[in-house]
Amino acid sequence: MCVLDTRINLRVKNILKKIFSTSDYITVTAIAKELGISNRTILRELPAAEKWLLNTGCRLEKKSGVGIRAIGKPEDKNNLINLLDEEKEEKLYTPKERQTIICSELLQNQEPVKLYTFTRILDVAEATVSNDLDKLEEWLGKQEVTLVRKPGLGVYIEGEEDNIRKCMINLIYENINENHLLGLIRKNISKEQVPVSNTELIARSRLLNLVNGNTIHQLEKLVHQAEERIGYNLADSAVVGLIVHLAIAVQRIRKNEDIVIDKKFMEELKNSEEYTVAEKLAHEIEDIFDIKVPSDEIGYITMHIKGSKNIKTNEKDSGNFIGNNELVELSREIIRIAENETGKFLSQNEKLLTGLTNHLGPAINRLKMNLEIRNPLYTQIKTHYPDLMILAEKCIKVVEEYIDIKMPDTEIAYIAMHLGAAIEKSKVSPKRVFRAAIACATGIGTSRLLATRIEKEYDNIEVAGTVSMFNINNNWLKEKGIELIISTVVLDECPVPVVVVNPLLFQEDKARIDTLLEEVRNTCPNQPSGKKKTLNFKEKMFELNCYNNAITEILDNFFYIGDTQAEDVSQLINDISRMACSSEEDREQLVKDMEEREEKGGTFIPEYGIKLLHCRTKAVSQIHFGIIKLNKDIKNKGNIKEGAELAMVAVAPEGSSRYMLETISHVNGILVDQPEFIRILKDGSKEDIFDELCSILEEYYNEKNNKYMKN
């Protein structure tokens, strides 16, 4: 194969690939459409393409009114396609990439930068750089930062330190999505879902010079320690925001660029409980990075922490921050306006009220502190749900008037999301609540997972219980007042209507449930009432003790495997049998029962990368619960790699009581209810996972205790 000295840019390479991958003539218009560029650009690049082809044994044939085709022997054409794949292209930045690189360089430099520096970096003419600076000047101006151009001296930026930092943060967020930033923070960057060009990667790399990689990883540890001190976990977006802010702050403090906060507002911040946490965090930053963090900088850290949660009213907070009672009233007013505008019945939707209240708290605090509100879904919501945006804009006026601040479109989009979800659910009349049972093969695995999803998706379905397919009987259904069963497996001869769904509850499953609800509504329009048996004190204590025994068994028999070498689910089941059983006979029985359960359909939760393995078996006399970290992606029964990172295992005795099954099902359901549990499962040690399991079961026991003592 011939080696060429002449390099080509990416555009020429793509044009040639398109022509040589087509056996017949192809028009300039077709090439332009495929590559997303103009006909004129194609014609301008063709001479470079023809020059590059001179020593390849191939050439281009152009026929007026017909198009262009590749001429050459088949073997020469194949060699050329391989050569194109190997050929290194010249850097050819898009205008957006050039402007990103220029801006990141200017933001990092305190001294003027000469134009020829940019022409050398970007390999473009001065006129192109000047045009990019015009665009950049407009972008900077919107953020109250000035681009200064002085002939003979160079280009630099001027502005308040607060605004310069906002520019840095906005530049990062506009060019790097939040998931990529989160991956960078956690040293866990996966391959891009959408391929990016070499030049885009270079632009991003220069952009990330604004925040040093090692600095970010050190700050992550400090932020997680701060989370422990404040007693709650920040959302991923809040963690990213705080770490990016701190990383930029460290760089700017090193350059003696300090931020200033209004003195009166600073005093308010000092009176908040978050200031103490921010102060401790600042001292740790001083020790690690050998810098002095000014008090105003501590105020900014406080603002980020306060802006990440709903602030409860207490005696230390001043009037600048809003309390929970006010948030509830504002949320009710939003719902009232939405009802009037849409004619939908929303005022009894507790989830909507709670969701709005929890969201408005941090949002209002961020706006009051002049912090950015980012919404990665804003463009999609604006494009696909314009009616919801208009509705949200009307509803949010009550908040704008109350706090005297104009809400940004990104925040309006968040309100649109909350209202849209509630309006969608209101399409099924909320006046009729259906009592349903959730069934699965064993009663310990997917039933609770599905129950949690049903409760989240449907306000008009009351989950009266979870049950194994083998334990469904008429008496139990009547006692519970069950109208329908939502099952993960096919049930034979059931006395009430049944709908079979995937435990992950896909869109088609919801459609089947909606259809069944209409059928039940038409055949039985009135709400049935289950027989509610009143327990005496002795019966209450007996049932409470049963839950206590179930919890104790789960904790006593908890196991953890952190380094399995299993390559498929069968090998994984063998690992489980060795942990749960002492005799060879019992191990063989457990393997048989769990294999049979998997044959009926395994359960994998793709959004979390978690495989659920569970069964009921006579191989064990007590319930066993465990977590297995997977070193490699295992194959399922269909010989397909699903992408599982860990397995959650539950093995119960064949004759397990309903208390035992309900308790272990509750732990499975936490996967949907508490994303923080998933983070601990993936990143935590055996001790971390066990401690979290203890907390979950303690809370569960307290709920049961309160329920029995009240009734």
Structural overview:
By secondary structure, the protein is an alpha/beta fold. The protein has 6 domains: 10-86, Winged helix-like DNA-binding domain superfamily/Winged helix DNA-binding domain (Arc Repressor Mutant, subunit A); 95-210, Arc Repressor Mutant, subunit A, CATH 1.10.10; 213-306, Orthogonal Bundle (PTS-regulatory domain, PRD), CATH 1.10.1790; 324-425, PTS-regulatory domain, PRD (Orthogonal Bundle), CATH 1.10.1790.10; 434-523, Response regulator (Rossmann fold, 3-Layer(aba) Sandwich), CATH 3.40.50.2300; 537-710, Mannitol-specific EII, Chain A (3-Layer(aba) Sandwich). The protein has 30 helices and 13 strands. The strands form 4 sheets. It has a 5-stranded mixed beta sheet with strand order 9-12-13-11-10, sandwiched between helices. β1 and β2 (67-71) form a beta hairpin. α5 (95-108) crosses α7 (126-141) and α6 crosses α7. It is globular and about 90 Å long.
